[in-house]
Amino acid sequence: MTTETKNAEKWDFYETNVAGVTFGERQSTIKKMRALELKRQPENTKDPNAVLILHQGEEIGYVPRELAAMISARLKEGAEVTAKLEEIFDYNGIFAVRICIGMEKGQEAAKPVPAESKEKVIEDDWDLL
């Protein structure tokens, strides 16, 4: 039993699609991925709250902007944040990725997007493929 499972009441979980999965060579990496790493990217010129998703050091994409500010702040605070692969979708050779992000509960640095807005974000992510 993992710490995440034993102490589930101390964690918040967010399932989300990964943004930017068709950029560069990310598609070939997605085909073979398992464990994921989250890395803050405060130097990102498009979004200083950006959180990069990696698999064995290779870029997969980003946590969507709607969750990135909160997750980036929790990472900066030193909170334990995990990401695991939930599903890979193959749309005629274009891969989309769905992950689950778990993090220790604590004082939230940014307000999460309301549930109905999250569904819209997910729909919009798929439209980008």
How many structural domains can be distinguished in the coordinates?
Answer: 1
Q: How confident is the prediction overall: mean pLDDT?
A: 76
> How do the strands line up in the largest sheet?
1-6-5
Q: Determine the strand fraction and express it as a percent band.
A: 25-35%
User: Share of helix among residues?
Assistant: 25-40%
Q: What structural category arises from helix and sheet content?
A: alpha+beta
Name the helix and strand elements from N-terminus to C-terminus, one letter apiece.
HEHEEEHEEH
CATH architecture: 2-Layer Sandwich
- The coarse silhouette is globular
Query: What is the makeup of the main sheet?
Result: 3 strands, antiparallel
CATH class: Alpha Beta
Query: Can you tell me the CATH topology?
Result: Alpha-Beta Plaits
What gyration radius follows from the Cα positions, in whole Å?
14 Å
State the helix count. Answer: 4
- Low-pLDDT stretches: 1-5, 109-129
State the distance separating the first and last CA atoms. 36 Å
How many distinct beta strands?
A: 6
